[in-house]
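Hi there, hope your week has been kind to you so far. Do you reckon you could talk me through the fold, stretch by stretch? I've dropped the whole record in just underneath, so have a look:
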Amino acid sequence: MPDAQPTPKAIILDGPNHTGPCRRTLASEDIIIGRTDLRHPNPHVHLDLNRDPRVSHRHARVWRSAATWYIEDLQSKNGTFLDGRPVPEPVEFWPGAPVQTGDTTWTIVPPDWLFVHAAGVVVSGPCAASINYATWHCDLPWVGPLKAWNLQDRSSRALRLRLHLPEFSDPCFVNVPALDPRGHVRLPAPRLRLNGEALKMKSASERATLTVFVDGKQDPDASVQTTVLPSRSWSYAPADLITLAAFVWPDHAVVQQIVHQAHAALPDSSAAASLGALVQSGATDAEARACRALYDYLRDACDVQWRPPHDRTGYQIIRTPDEIVAASPSAQPIEATCVDLAVLLAACLENLRLWPVIVLTGPRFDLPQHAFAGCWTGSLPHGRPVIRDRRFLREQVERGRLLLVECTALARRPGAAGKRTFAEAVTSAAEQLATEPWLCAVDIGSLRPPYGSITPLDCPLDAPVRHAYHAAEEFARRKRRPYVETAFLLYGCLAAGGRVVTWLLNEAGLEATDLMSRIDHLTKSAAATSPPTTTRSCWHCRQEAQRYAAACASAMVQEQHLVWALLLRGPDSGKFRALCQGLGIDTAILSDVMARRYPPPDASLGWGDSIGTL
């Protein structure tokens, strides 16, 4: 975990005996602004404005609480003004906003904030302290909303900012309009398009610099340092907590194997065809029985040594299910952190169509130090991606609507007599829910489509598959449809023209260009103005393709995996069935043709049986 938070800097923008911006590094995030002299020395004043006699000895205070900054006047003689308005009581402070005390104008800027001062205008906004492949995959903004202020008594001219993170992003432009005297404006968050392929290739962290150009000229003082993390890393930053959902792989081949073997180990395994069938049966305590079966199997079958998350780098490499389970049993047991084990259990629960939750705890909001997992039982909550209400979580546990399990109980711990039972793990989780100083729950189901947009990190995609996904999205945009539907994946496969689809069409006596033309004709245009999102059925097809690739021990999702997903899961979509009927395509016949060269999915691996419906 990080040792300490980075400290901000103070920037004096204007004042007595100041001809330009003066930057000073501060030692803390609780800052006293005042004036010292020989008669009134005060070591507790962090920003000393001793050149301005109208500044009181203890004039103002700026501090951060959780993720929000505040400012207050300390009963100064001449007052404190934020955006030209007096500060009679503590109010929220946007770092970079101009503050006037006496005749001096200054501001406070954290190290991970963008701050530009040019032509009498200041622009500021938050930046993420780090980026990684999960940031790109989850489409999280790296630069937040901006605000601009005109410090002059005359109108300012318009500015054009260019932001660029070399190697890891495309250039992004921000247009700052002309502002009235002492005016200010809020600007939308710049869409800095990150380079997913470059981030995916990172195996170690490195520093990178966001370069800033103002009207075509680079401003070195405005540059922002960031950390590019390894591709399979999960950042502890508060804004990145939800990316943990991307590391929950419910369709991983090892997860499917765990689910299958946990069912086989049940004393009454013949009572239900699978754990998934047990959950869907609606039997009393079905969720708890399935969770207990998974826990007991993992506890008995895995030789895992618990490792505390003792690193101080601000992130953790998440181990995949095969890295945790495949190495067990062995002479040298693998080490796994609480997060690794929580993610593994959550993946198994999601594979059973349950709605998993991962609870994070720690001493404060930005320093999670422990994790455990569980799932909702019975009726689902209203779907908050991150739940910080301790009372709500405790009530759900007490009412039996939320089942939580201490995951480190699955592992051997130094000094412990042995692994704990399921009942002991449940009791331990409930105790932590009541006593930990800080906690929050990441609701994995609320982050999955169609409720959210975070899917598990993709397997690498073969070129025809990438082309097919891209063509499907472009088709939805061209037709101005609000969703990328399963039927559009068929269009994408035809447009990609890979060897598998080409062979299949030739064997079936079909023509790709003719089918594409007819799909275009049958698909009516809409009037959507925002980018299309993926339907649940389409997302399931893509997940099935990944599942087949994993089951085949393939290093990437290949074209035949996607074709089989469409043939077997596509008919689940009514629109897909209607389109196939309109095209005169019989998916059963195509499946028979496909099986001549490419083996169908192995039913014993649970294909299509345990895909999460969420």
Q: What stands out?
A: The CA atoms of residues 49 and 248 lie 52 Å apart. Residues 603-614 have pLDDT under 50 and may be disordered.
